[in-house]
């Protein structure tokens, strides 16, 4: 009697090929998702550092400032006669700053934000997605 059908090896080969093709087809989607997650985590880190600087200024009774450059940002506190850099963070690869090259955000000992002409920091990823941190005059920090 001659039975027709597929062997286990043939089925496994077909499944392996289908898995490989699925992986190739969905790879760009995972790259896009990773890019958005990196942008989101970077903007959340920046907003957390802004909040920490504000609360540290109120707690310690000394001014803090966050200086935002094209490639990084620094958190500084006023020490007797000078500014002491507390933290420096570089933008991850694929994340760039949009807008003016330099912004200084100051938090006096009261914790109230000293509004400047540009109180918005915009970052974008290598796929063009943008997110912003906006600081209001009262010191409220929000992400959009």
List keywords for this structure.
4-stranded antiparallel β-sheet, alpha+beta, 144 residues, 1 helix, 8 strands, minor pseudopilin epsh fold
Q: What does this 3D model show about the protein?
A:
- This protein is an alpha+beta fold.
- The protein has one domain (36-143): minor pseudopilin epsh fold (3-Layer(bab) Sandwich), CATH 3.55.40.10.
- The chain contains one helix and eight strands, in the order αββββββββ.
- The strands form two sheets. A four-stranded antiparallel β-sheet has the order 3-2-1-5, with helices on one face. A four-stranded antiparallel β-sheet has the order 4-6-7-8, covered by helices on one side.
- The protein starts with 7 loop residues before the first helix and ends with a strand.
């Amino acid at each position: 009697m001659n039975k027709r059908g597929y062997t286990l090896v043939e089925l496994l080969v077909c499944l392996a090929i289908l898995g490989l093709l699925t992986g190739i087809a969905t790879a760009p989607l995972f790259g896009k998702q990773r890019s958005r997650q990196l942008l989101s985590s970077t903007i959340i880190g920046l907003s957390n550092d802004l909040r920490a600087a504000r609360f540290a200024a109120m707690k310690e009774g000394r001014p803090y400032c966050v200086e935002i450059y094209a490639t990084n940002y620094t958190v500084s506190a006023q020490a007797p006669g000078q500014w002491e850099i507390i933290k420096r963070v570089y933008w991850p690869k694929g994340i760039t700053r949009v807008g003016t090259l330099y912004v200084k955000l100051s938090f006096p000992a009261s914790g109230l934000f000293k509004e400047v002409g540009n109180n918005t920091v915009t970052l974008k990823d290598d796929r063009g997605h943008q997110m912003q941190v906006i600081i209001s005059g009262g010191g409220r920090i929000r992400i959009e």
